[in-house]
Amino acid sequence: MKKKSKRIEFRIVSPQAEKVYLCGSFNQWSESSDPMKKDGAGTWKKTKVLTEGVYEYKFLVDGEWTLDPECHDATSNKFGTENNVIRL
Questions:
Q1: I need a labelling partner for 33 at 20 to 30 A (CA). Which of 8, 57, 58, 75 fits?
Q2: What are the DSSP calls for the chain, one per residue?
Q3: Radius of gyration of the chain (CA)
Q4: What's the CATH number where 9 sits?
């Protein structure tokens, strides 16, 4: 059976930020492949099409790894910090 794909919008409010990237297991934790766009209210957004599964992610806000404050599902990582988890 073919896995279903879903459009997922990731967002983080950070009006002062200059650059925000979406990084996660879906893009091999690339720090440059998924730049986010800021709207007029200071919310950064990025839409990804992901197949069913479990993914870990974080935001890279001006070079600082940042958890998604809206996501309450997290897991420990090998760096002694946490990653957010999304389950589709």
A1: 75
A2: -PPPEEEEEEEEE-TT-S-EEEEEGGGTT-SSSSB-EE-TTSEEEEEEEEESSEEEEEEEETTEEE--TT---EEE-TTSSEEEEEE-
A3: 13
A4: 2.60.40.10
Supply the pTM of this predicted model: 0.94
Mean pLDDT split into 10-residue runs, the chain, 88 residues: 89 98 98 97 98 97 98 96 97
| Residue 50 identity (one-letter amino acid) | L
Whether the CB-CB separation of 79 and 50 falls below 8 Å is answered with no
Domain of residue 32 covers 5-87
